[in-house]
Write a structure and sequence with these properties.
Helicase, Ruva Protein, domain 3, 51% helix, 9 strands, 576 residues, Rossmann fold, 28 helices, 3-stranded mixed β-sheet, globular
Length: 576
């Protein structure tokens, strides 16, 4: 019996015969499972392999309305722009595969000893104080979690990497003159069925393996009763038998706490896969999935799998390179009679209406093009047209987006927990975590802002001390420091703050609040002193440094950097 839960589509790759490649890392040498993995791609090759756009020819612009509307519909399934963060995921996945196989070598006695002992016994015994299982093997597997809002392409990037850059199944027959009849499933991606249990997840796993290999694991294990632990152990056993390289579990937020037996059951389930038999696991989910590790961290750190890291991705920032690169490449795919140049106003409108979510941006761009084509005349895309289309096609999302735009401090609501990360809750989690957490997009900026705001007094004091090198009045220095800090809402890079402060003084473009301080200071009675000839500026004087820098065509910031008066960002981290 071969079932696939709820009609879910199984991601399938290619089968191939093993071709072994020389390895430069000693731990990878002599292991056919590692040597059969394709060679690593550099970032240029990675980009070429994954970049995709729909067919586009100049003559398309002369097609009729219906034909061009049909071409517009091809943008979403065909457009894919690789980004640097995607290459980071590829690099991490590639390393996970090789490192995970280091403790599983089918030509070694250890590998066969584990099968002789039996996986049931190995799983029951667990690991000793040194991290070794009963067979004496120490697993090398890593695990990772991808948490992010819906529409950011978390799943899509892994699907493209897996299908385009790795075979799914490698068939071994002979290795170095020795018969080796074994099957290696390099990767397997399954989804959590909505609102179901870990048991249902295991059934999906069996069905996926059967569909891939023509086996009968579902018939053998899928309908058997037992506890959650029993189901997990059977799944682990099958994963070991097929030499699984990495298991990707998508839509992990669908695992219902009540059905799965609680948060810790899911943690223990993933940990057993990773630590006991060495199967790398990548878990993908929305912000709803944050609950999986929050409780475990609060109770015990031993629940987190070894060598675990977590990537948290939120909205692309409007001024980020990623957003600008994405929107420019997307914008070029126009099937309107006349090409509309992407202006700053159009770019701002696109970001405002989509919050930088790629999936929504692509859909809105398609709808706007279709509307422009149907309107006829010059078929020009305008800000007015874009906003009008967004108000209709995205009307269900707008109430949610508006709350995010306002920066509402509301806690996790059912309507927002897929797209909004409640900061206070996440920050507590971040501080408790002992594993590595990588932040991308708006959540990275929010984290930076919170840290910088916490150090407000320290930063302002540094600015005051810097300002005292430029002005003689403490009151003026304090006012300048506060003005510069507030100008960036505490989010500015320190080096930019120092440069901004220097520019205010040297250019004498002081805001009214500072001017008042100047007037107050100048209005105080002063003792009469004999006039002195203004001395020449010393070489160490900041005014001299900036003045000389201007002569060489340097900006204020560049002059201060060159003189060593402004620290690099990494250096400042040690001060904070």
């Amino acid at each position: 019996m071969n079932l696939w839960n709820e009609g879910q589509e199984l991601l399938k790759g290619v089968h191939c015969k093993a071709e072994y490649k020389e390895q430069i890392v000693e731990q990878n040498q002599g292991n056919p499972l590692i040597e059969a993995i394709p060679s690593r791609l550099d970032i240029e090759m990675f980009y070429d392999k994954l970049y995709s756009i729909p067919m586009f020819k100049t003559e398309h612009l002369g097609y009729g309305i219906e034909d061009r509307l049909e071409l517009v519909q091809q943008i979403k399934p065909s457009f894919w722009l690789p980004l640097p963060s995607h290459y980071d995921k590829y690099r991490s996945l590639y390393n996970m595969l090789k490192i995970g196989y280091q403790s599983r070598n089918p030509v070694t006695a250890m590998y066969n000893r584990q099968f002789a002992i039996g996986w049931d016994k190995i799983l029951e015994t667990g690991l000793d104080e040194n991290g070794a299982n009963i067979a004496g093997n120490i697993q090398t597997a890593q695990s990772s979690t991808e948490i992010g809002l819906s529409g950011m392409g978390k799943s899509k990037v892994y699907e493209r990497i897996l299908k385009l850059l790795f075979p799914q199944v490698i068939h071994h027959s002979e290795y170095k003159g020795r018969i080796l009849l074994t099957t290696q499933v390099v990767w397997l991606k399954i989804e959590c069925p909505s609102g179901k249990s870990i048991g249902a997840l295991c059934k999906n796993f069996y069905a996926a393996v059967d569909d891939l290999l023509g086996s009968k694991f579902y018939e053998k294990h899928g309908e058997k009763g037992g506890t959650i632990d029993d189901l997990a152990k059977r799944m682990v056993k099958v994963a070991a038998q097929i030499n699984l390289g990495v298991l990707i579990i998508d839509e992990i937020q669908n695992v219902h706490k009540a059905h799965s037996g609680g948060d810790e059951r899911m943690i223990n389930f993933i940990t057993e896969l990773v630590n006991t038999i060495g199967i790398p696991v990548i878990v993908i989910g929305t912000f709803k999935a944050m609950y999986l590790y929050k409780k475990s961290l609060a109770v015990s750190r031993r629940g987190i799998p070894d060598m675990y890291n977590e990537n948290v991705t939120s909205l692309m920032l409007e001024d980020s390179w990623e957003w600008n690169e994405f929107i420019q490449n997307l914008w070029d795919l126009q099937y309107t009679a006349k090409y509309t140049t992407l202006t700053d106003d159009l770019k701002k409108a696109m970001y405002y209406q989509t919050l930088g979510i790629p999936d929504i941006a692509v859909k809105l761009f398609m709808h706007v093009q279709a509307k422009a084509i149907l309107n006829g005349e010059d078929e020009k895309i305008t800000v007015s047209l874009l906003n009008d289309v967004a108000s209709k096609s995205l009307r269900l999302l707008q109430p949610i987006f508006e709350k995010i735009r306002r920066g509402s401090s509301i806690s996790l609501l059912d309507e927002l927990d897929d797209v909004h990360l409640e900061w206070d809750s996440f920050n507590d989690y971040f501080k408790q975590a002992s594993h590595r957490i990588n932040l991308y997009g708006k959540v990275a900026k929010d984290h930076s802002r919170v840290n910088q705001q916490k150090n407000k007094d320290s930063i302002i004091n540094e600015l005051v001390q810097f300002a005292l090198n430029l002005v003689s009045s403490t009151e003026l220095a304090e006012s300048l420091a506060l003005t510069v800090f507030q100008a960036s809402e505490g989010m500015g890079d320190k080096s930019n703050m120092f440069a901004h402060l220097a520019q205010l003084v040297l250019a004498k473009k002081l805001p009214s609040s500072v001017t008042n301080v100047v007037n107050q200071v100048s209005g105080l009675p002063k003792s009469t002193k004999p006039k002195k000839i203004k001395p020449l500026l010393e070489q160490g004087d900041i005014r001299f440094i900036v003045s000389e820098g201007l002569k060489k065509g340097l900006t204020t910031e560049e002059s201060l950097f060159e003189a060593g008066l402004v620290k690099e960002y990494d250096e400042l981290l040690n001060i904070i």
